[in-house]
């Protein structure tokens, strides 16, 4: 089979497309023929060696993918060869306190495709049968591969960790990103008033088409000042922040009294100065967030199947062009998700 992997940390050029042995499933396992795999920013961090996640070489990225069952090692499975599936991005242990309490996204014993386990940057991937989820015939492989992490993470950040509900105001940073464009749709589904930032008028107009109400071009104006102007100095109830650095610290200025900022990324700076006084004087909340639980993943994928959520796909590339796809994602000149089509 063809696989795109890397033997050392570095820039996009370290990704090479080569031949590898096709996996064979054992009992309780299946092999999936990958039709589409989403590229997430964590892929770039792992490839560059900045993620603080240990990997063994050669390493195969790709956390979210969809395709068809190519082989099953357990004939008792309700699935059969040829069935259309999406693969849950994480394999929980199902026995730790987090898994037993429904917080399997915090499980430390399980594994993640593309991180601990070979991911979807390949024509075939071996997976546990338990990670297979049926994909309805009317949902494309591309939509499935672009939805799981973006919508799942946005749902976990806004609904679970941020407590966003109808009538709230929310600020979504970098609305042109995969997770940002997904968050606009989730916030719209929740019935919130949505403030978004982006680096161009074109991206802002696309965010508006997804449901955003107030558009802020952070390349041309001070986003914190603009949010306060638009809210009469009050700020917003919830902020989804996944940039880090100065964007994180300025975002705190946009919070309403008793508001919550949920952080789920820090590519622009992981260590920032923090003034503690506003937190107790105005009862502000700073909340960390990982990705979604399996229940939340199934929820958002159900909304995708119903047409209530629709992933935004910026572009697709063949597996051999994984390096170029990484360059495009790293350029940030995108709106939505970038996919590989093995």
Strand percentage lies at: 25-35%
Largest sheet features: 7 strands, mixed
First-residue to last-residue Cα separation = 10 Å
Q: How many strands appear in the DSSP assignment?
A: 17
Computed structural class: alpha/beta
SSE pattern, N- to C-terminal: EEEHEEEHEEEHEHEHEHEHEHEHEHE
Number of helices: 10
How many domain modules? Answer: 2
Radius of gyration computed on alpha carbons: 20 Å
Q: What is the averaged pLDDT score?
A: 93
Shape-level CATH architecture of the largest domain:
Alpha-Beta Complex
Question: What's the CATH class of the largest domain, please?
Answer: Alpha Beta
CATH topology grouping of the largest domain:
Quinone Oxidoreductase, Chain A, domain 1
Low-confidence stretches: none
Helix content estimate: 25-40%
- CATH homologous superfamily designation of the largest domain: Medium-chain alcohol dehydrogenases, catalytic domain
Shape: globular
How would you portray this structure in words?
The chain is α/β, with parallel strands linked by helices and 342 residues long. 29% of the residues lie in helices and 26% in strands. It is built from 10 helices and 17 strands. Strands 3, 4, 5, 8, 9, 16 and 17 form a 7-stranded mixed beta sheet that branches. Strands 12-11-10-13-14-15 form a 6-stranded parallel beta sheet, sandwiched between helices. Helix 4 links the parallel strand 10 and strand 11 (193-198). The longest helix is centred in the middle third of the chain and has 21 residues, at 141-161. The radius of gyration is 20 Å and the shape is globular. The mean pLDDT is 93.
């Amino acid at each position: 089979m063809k696989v795109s992997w890397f033997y050392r940390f570095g820039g996009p050029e370290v990704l090479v497309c080569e031949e590898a042995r096709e996996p064979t499933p054992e009992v309780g396992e299946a092999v999936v023929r990958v039709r589409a795999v989403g590229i997430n920013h964590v892929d770039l961090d792992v490839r560059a060696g900045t993620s603080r996640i240990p990997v063994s070489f050669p390493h195969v990225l790709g956390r979210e993918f969809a395709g068809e069952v190519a082989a099953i090692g357990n004939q008792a499975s309700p699935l059969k060869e040829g069935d259309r599936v999406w693969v849950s991005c994480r394999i929980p242990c199902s026995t730790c306190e987090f898994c037993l309490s429904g917080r399997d996204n915090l499980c430390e014993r399980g594994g993640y495709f593309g991180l601990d386990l070979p991911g979807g940057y390949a024509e075939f991937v071996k997976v546990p049968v338990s990670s297979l989820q049926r994909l309805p015939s009317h949902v494309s492989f591309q939509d499935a591969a672009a939805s799981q992490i973006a919508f799942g993470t946005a749902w976990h950040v806004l609904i679970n960790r941020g407590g966003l509900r109808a009538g709230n105001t929310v600020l979504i940073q970098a609305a042109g990103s995969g997770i940002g464009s997904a968050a606009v749709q989730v916030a719209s589904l929740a019935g919130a008033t949505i403030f978004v930032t982006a680096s161009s008028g074109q991206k802002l107009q696309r965010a508006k088409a997804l449901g955003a109400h107030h558009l802020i071009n952070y390349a041309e104006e001070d986003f914190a000042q603009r949010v306060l102007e638009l809210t009469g100095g009050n700020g917003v109830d919830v902020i989804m922040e996944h940039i880090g650095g100065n964007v994180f610290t300025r975002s705190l200025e946009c919070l309403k009294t008793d508001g919550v900022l949920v952080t789920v990324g820090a590519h622009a700076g992981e260590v920032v100065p923090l003034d503690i006084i506003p937190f107790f004087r105005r009862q502000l909340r700073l909340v960390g967030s990982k990705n979604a639980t399996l229940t939340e993943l199934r929820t958002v994928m159900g909304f995708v199947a119903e047409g209530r959520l629709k992933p935004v796909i910026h572009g697709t590339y063949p597996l051999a062009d994984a390096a170029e796809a990484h360059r495009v994602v790293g350029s940030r000149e995108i709106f939505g998700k970038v996919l590989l089509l093995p």
